[in-house]
Amino acid sequence: MKRKEICEVISQKEIAEDIYELTVKGDFIQDIESPGQFVHIKVANSHDPLLRRPISISSYNKNNKQLTMIYRKDGRGTSLLAEHVAGMDIDILGPLGNGFPVDETKMGQTALLVGGGIGVPPLYELSNQLKANGVKVIHVLGFQTDSVVFYEQEFAANGQTFIATVDGSHGTKGFVTDVIDQQGIEFDVLYSCGPLPMLRALEQKFPNKTVFLSLEERMGCGVGACFACVCKTKDDPEGTSYKKVCSDGPVFRAGEVVL
Amino acid sequence: MSRLNVELPGLKLKNPIMPASGCFGFGKEYSQFYDLSVLGAIMIKATTVEPRFGNPTPRVAETSAGMLNAIGLQNPGLDKVLSEELPRLENYDVPIIANVAGTTEEDYIEVAHRISKAPNVHALELNISCPNVKKGGITFGTVPEIAKQLTYKVKKVSEVPVYVKLSPNVTDIVEMAKAVEAGGADGLTMINTLVGMRLDLKTGRPILANRTGGLSGPAIKPVAIRMIYEVSQVVSIPIIGMGGIESAQDVVEFFYAGASAVAVGTANFVDPFVCPTIIDELPKLLEKLGYEHISECQGRSWK
């Protein structure tokens, strides 16, 4: 069930340049179904910004009702979000959307998790759950530069982890696809979240594999009512068929929607 | 005794609060949060004869105290609205106001004629004010004589009262209101969004794929109040007011200006529970202000 809840901030810290890790406590966390779902946050009790901010969930623990998000401080909304400290209240709508199908990868199989920039966070909970299911996880994480790399150790604790940076300041110089080629990575299922060009490249590169992609789009309501975040479907690219990123996604099977 | 029940042409409302068209889909999404029967009415998303995909994304951009949208009347088309969306809404004890849109006069007439026969559609909202479609929409809503003619023709085929949704993007809102009243409108809904634009700091280009969009939210409330104040004094048909409403206080202010009911739009996106919250708060506010009934507030600014 989706809820609107005033949650308590447990902690917040800057874990890389302008990258924040925020942990909150709330009852709605009991309702999270899968990694890759997101929350919609009212960052300030004011009109500026007016709308909520969709933020992906990087990990959650139903036992202590805590949830961690990782986001980049960029515009006015996320700057205000970054000002929250332990003990403060925060207005959260969630859990929203449909996450990654964890069960698509069976025990003993290999899952490749490919993240780009601020698309990396939701892959962390996914990695944890896959590993708990006895799946072998391999991570390829792309960032702009060394100063914005985060969670390398955390991912490495679950499985092999390769980092790519655009400027070569950390790990392999280049893109995530370069790493996959160079390392000759074999896998059964691919899960990815990140910028559109990266998702397109992965979809084209692995047409015969089981691939799940998490999309990002500007959202209004976050629940499917405003039709701001629609995309076309692959089987009707010129027609009126559509999917809503917020409520049909954000995770889609590759080939389902037009990227 | 209810302080909130209101009667308007075609509409017996248990309270004067309804979600605005385009901000509530066909109710399905918000029915996950609360029982839609608490609402005074529901203004469903604009319906056109054929299904429409709408505009490319990005379709929304935020502004201070508001948002720009350029959805482009995305909807599943008249047949599906009649066969799926409206029947589903029959599960709730709530009258529907069907927003009617099109690109040609014939479109409007066909949608109005057929949708007005649906058992739970108690009124139409003639959408001649959508700023986000290239053809139709606002072109019918900026020339008084054209608006009047369309109102007249839609009235002739509609089996329920017709409210005309006015655009604020005109030189003289009073002239538009008088024209559609002369065309036979049973009521007015106002205001639709104000045309606006935002540019991306890095690229210098418009954020919206449609370049321009309709501004909604608290930022436009004073414009709506002013226009309802002006129009309500010169027409004898009721006004459903809208434009940035997010609290019981806002509702009272719209009634003071001259509205007889109100619609809540953008605020639904911020708080899915905003409509039931306002419905809950409004009687308490009226009591505090010394009113027995909401209707005592109507037109208080000029009466």
Question: How would you characterize the overall build of this protein?
Answer:
The complex is a heterodimer of chains A (259) and B (303). Chain A has 259 residues and is α/β, with parallel strands linked by helices. Chain A folds into two domains: 3-96, Elongation Factor Tu (Ef-tu), domain 3; 102-214, Nucleotide-binding domain of ferredoxin-NADP reductase (FNR) module (Rossmann fold). Chain A is built from five helices and 15 strands. Chain A has helices spanning 76-81, 121-132, 152-158, 176-183, 196-205, and strands at 3-16, 19-25, 38-42, 53-61, 66-72, 89-96, 110-116, 136-143, 161-165, 172-173, 189-193, 210-214, 230-232, 242-244, 251-253. Chain A is globular. The two termini of chain A are 29 Å apart. The model of chain A has no long low-confidence stretch (mean pLDDT 96). Chain B has 303 residues and is of the alpha/beta class. Chain B has one domain (6-297): Aldolase class I (TIM Barrel, Alpha-Beta Barrel). Chain B contains eight helices and 14 strands. In chain B, the strands form three sheets. Chain B has an eight-stranded parallel β-sheet with strand order 3-14-13-10-9-8-7-4. The A-B interface holds A 1-2, 4, 42, 47-52, 93, 217-232, 239-240, 242, 247 and B 22-25, 28-30, 32-33, 45, 51-54, 57-67, 69, 71, 74, 76-77, 217-219, 266, 268-273.
